[in-house]
Amino acid sequence: MADAKQTLIEAVRQQTAMANTRMLVDKLNEHCFERCVASPTTSLGSAETSCVKNCIGKYVNSWDTVSKQYAGHIQRKTRLLGQ
């Protein structure tokens, strides 16, 4: 029974990670592309490429910070509930 529970927990974690990744990519496309590419063509200019890279870098760093803080919060709550 413990193995089945652990398998289910891992499956939920993986699905959550995939959903979060999809959400991040959607937000990057929505936010960075709209901000950096005024009129889309078949390729990006150097200024557009630089803008997209910088925007994505900032967004991913922010996402990483928030995710780590949230994970820490969940771990603390889990420990408190387990006591």
TrEMBL record:
- Domain (Tim10-like) ranges: 11-71
Any single Pfam family the record assigns to this protein: zf-Tim10_DDP
Q: Which UniProt keywords apply?
A: Chaperone, Disulfide bond, Membrane, Mitochondrion, Mitochondrion inner membrane, Protein transport, Translocation, Transport
Question: InterPro entries from the entry?
Answer: Tim10-like, Tim10-like_dom_sf
Q: Which SUPFAM superfamilies match?
A: Tim10-like
What is this entry's stated membrane topology?
Peripheral membrane protein
Q: What is its main location?
A: mitochondrion
Q: Where does the record place it? A: Mitochondrion inner membrane
Residues folding into a coiled coil are none
Q: Which Gene3D superfamilies match?
A: Mitochondrial import inner membrane translocase subunit tim13 like domains
**Assigned GO CC terms:** mitochondrial inner membrane
GO BP field: protein transport
* Domain remark in the UniProt entry: The twin CX3C motif contains 4 conserved Cys residues that form 2 disulfide bonds in the mitochondrial intermembrane space.
State the family it belongs to. Belongs to the small Tim family.
> What does this protein's UniProt record list under function?
Mitochondrial intermembrane chaperone that participates in the import and insertion of some multi-pass transmembrane proteins into the mitochondrial inner membrane. Also required for the transfer of beta-barrel precursors from the TOM complex to the sorting and assembly machinery (SAM complex) of the outer membrane. Acts as a chaperone-like protein that protects the hydrophobic precursors from aggregation and guide them through the mitochondrial intermembrane space.
Assembly and interactions? Heterohexamer.
Q: What is this protein called?
A: Mitochondrial import inner membrane translocase subunit
Q: Provide the species name.
A: Piedraia hortae CBS 480.64
| Species lineage | Eukaryota, Fungi, Dikarya, Ascomycota, Pezizomycotina
